[in-house]
Amino acid sequence: MPVNVKDAPFGAIGNGQTDDTVAIQNAINYAKSLSAAGGGAYRATVYFPAGFYYISSPINVTNVNGLWLTGDGGRYLNSNIIGRTSGVIFDFSGSNISGCENLTFLSLSVYGATRSTIGVLFALTANGGLNCGIKNCYFQLEDYATANNNFGTIGLLNVRSEEFFAHECLIRANTPMVFSSTTNLAETGNNLTVSSPYQTLSTGVGSMGVVSIKGASLQAYEKRQPALVLVGTNSITFDGYMGRLSTAQGANETAVQCVRYTTNINIYATIESYSRILRATLGGFDGNIINVVMVNSLAPTTDLIDLTGCSVKGLKAKVTLPNPGERTGRYFIYHAPIGNGYQQATGFMTNSEITCFDITDNQYAVSANLLKRSENVIVNSDQPYEKKGGRIKQLFTNSKSAGTSGSITPVVILRFREANQLPFNNTNAGFYRIWIDGVIKGGSYASGVSFVLCFQAQIVISQSYDGQYAPLSNTVIILDKSVTNPTALDIASISLDLSFSGGYGIVTLTPKVMGSVAIEPVSYDGHAEIQSDFLVNEAVIAK
Known about the structure:
Blueprint: E1 3-4, E2 15-19, H1 21-33, E3 46-47, E4 51-55, E5 59-60, E6 68-70, E7 79-83, E8 88-91, E9 99-101, E10 104-107, E11 118-123, E12 133-135, E13 138-141, H2 147-150, E14 154-159, E15 164-167, E16 170-173, E17 175-180, E18 209-220, E19 228-231, E20 234-244, E21 254-259, E22 262-272, E23 276-281, E24 284-286, E25 289-295, E26 305-306, E27 311-313, E28 316-320, E29 333-334, E30 348-355, H3 368-372, E31 374-380, E32 385-388, E33 391-394, E34 400-404, E35 407-408, E36 411-417, E37 430-443, E38 450-463, E39 473-483, E40 490-501, E41 504-514, E42 521-533, E43 540-542
Parallel strand pairs: 1-3, 2-4, 3-6, 4-7, 5-8, 6-9, 7-10, 8-11, 9-12, 10-13, 11-14, 12-15, 13-16, 14-17, 15-18, 16-18, 17-19, 18-20, 19-21, 20-22, 21-23, 22-24, 22-25, 23-26, 24-27, 25-28, 26-29, 27-30, 28-30, 30-31
Antiparallel strand pairs: 31-32, 32-33, 33-42, 34-35, 34-42, 36-41, 36-43, 37-38, 37-42, 38-39, 40-41
């Protein structure tokens, strides 16, 4: 039988006016004390019938094993806990195999400074703090920007309570969810040290991971804080929605904030209103998966994922931007300039794959300073490429027209963003080396006359510290050629040229076509690789 908080001798009223703190606490204490016939403890569920339970101090559910609190079904305005505790509503610090479901947590602005600022707290103590969770709960902790040392209201706060789950929950707060490996959250930019009113939390830095968040909706008030804050976490899966209820105040654009070493997080989400999906700082970002649909951004020029200063390994990121107005001029993977752009990126990226077919300009796929310090990276964009062995390889090039026989036009077969975008100084020296493996073909199925020429080519050019280029070195090797009727249609040779304009390097190819037929189409098909060596940035293949 569950312990009913309204039953005698507890006598909770649940009318939203009577203070039910003592009644609820007595019911929980009684459930803690129960023992089974023949000895040994057991835990009855503590049941909250539908109603509004006003509490004036935090409910102590700490240092207990196997205690579950449950409401009267549904997750919206059924069994409601109205918090006027000036802090946390339910405190589960040090508890194992415990949690709550079917409850609504309310903290209303009409109660001013006495309103609760944290919905539920789970944390590690010397007694424990594992295998807990919440299910089918609704949190409405209204906008209170200065609470919790400027974190504002926090729906769910977890410090080192691992093997945790939060399923089918809707959380509305300034910061809906925070998971941390330490009680000191100053590295997030908000100088908050987490504490429990009843227990001493484990100090130092430990592990925080193995967390399942499914069917969640995280909705933040204003542009103040991220929806999800992760400090030193591992093995966290998020599946749900992140958005904002209002956007009139504040400047935060980041939906997920990762601080310290972050590994094995899996984010599958639709994100609205936020402009940036994720920002990681102060450490490694390893083995993580991000699969996001990003819509209704209010600042569409913001980068999507900021990994400044991080060591990034094994990242798999896939982003869809369905609104065309939110696609241009945005970095997918970004690293801030170092030393006003005169120094290499402090972070690096290896063994990673990023996918965003809505990116049409590859200079925005990975910022050039991070690409400089990247290896074994695949970019699946509108024009895919990969970097491996120090070379950037264009994965494919669709057939491009070179005009018709008798009216040949040069064809651009490679465009790349110059590596050196800085004002000229003594760090500007470097070189570009370009490989091309291609086919020139002419003729048509209808005419029955055609040629195919296969070739490889290499272009090398050096740049001195003052920005001046050395003479171009250009080598073309004809590998093979096939012609059906040389008199009607043939190719004698090809020429390649590299020029620079507007910050781009442009490689053009011009075939020399001969024969008596002057209307047959001529085209190029192939792929290219580019290797560059400049101090700060890497050359980026562009469409």
